[in-house]
Design goal:
Elements lengths: L11 H24 L9 H4 L4 H19 L5 E6 L5 E8 L4 H8 L3 H27 L5 E6 L6 E7 L14
Antiparallel strand pairs: 1-2, 2-4, 3-4
Helix pairs in contact: 3-5, 4-5
């Protein structure tokens, strides 16, 4: 696109040429697509997984319930978000998830102990969280990640849904 001298505005001819080129490309793409015999691409896993608002609410309630039963208290609030592309990721953010003991350790400079404690809890309770999310969403989780920030008390859990299989299973064919 060319600019009119000194005006800072694209010339009418350049603008028209640009639109004609775009229209030509769109028509060519449509015609090529209409006459190809190639097999359609396999739909992405993300195209198959739909996580509704009701499911997100159920996830928030279930995470709160599980954290309360495992940690002796639930988070102050839980936020759930979902990506809209493949692979689908369901991200759960728990606010104020530290126990009183965790807060004391953190305040006294033992953030490493808080992280170790939560890593052990995440590993020990992983199957419970996976089972709950898979039941709500109706699809298997391919990867699960969990971490807590020892100073803020923010805890994050990420559940990934992908057609590549279970990333944690060493026997799974992920190629």
């Amino acid at each position: 696109m060319s600019w009119s001298a000194g005006s800072g505005v694209p010339s009418v001819q350049a603008s028209t040429d640009w639109y004609l080129a775009r229209a030509h490309a769109a028509v060519k793409h449509a015609l090529v697509g209409a006459f190809t015999t190639a097999k359609p691409e396999r739909p992405l896993y993300g195209g198959q997984v739909r996580i509704t608002r009701a499911q997100r609410n159920a996830v928030a309630e279930k995470i709160t319930s599980l954290e309360r039963s495992f940690y002796g208290r639930g988070p102050r609030n839980v936020k759930v978000s979902v990506s809209d592309d493949d692979p689908i990721s369901l991200v759960v953010l728990s606010l104020d998830s530290l126990t009183v003991a965790d807060a004391v350790l953190s305040e006294r400079g033992r953030q490493d102990a808080v992280i170790s404690h939560h890593e052990a809890l995440h590993e020990a309770t992983k199957a419970d969280f996976l089972e709950a999310i898979e039941e709500i969403v109706g699809e298997p989780v391919s990867a699960y990640l969990a971490q807590v920030h020892p100073n803020t008390g923010y805890a994050v859990r990420v559940f990934v849904f992908s057609d590549l299989g279970d990333f944690d299973d060493p026997d799974a064919d992920n190629a």
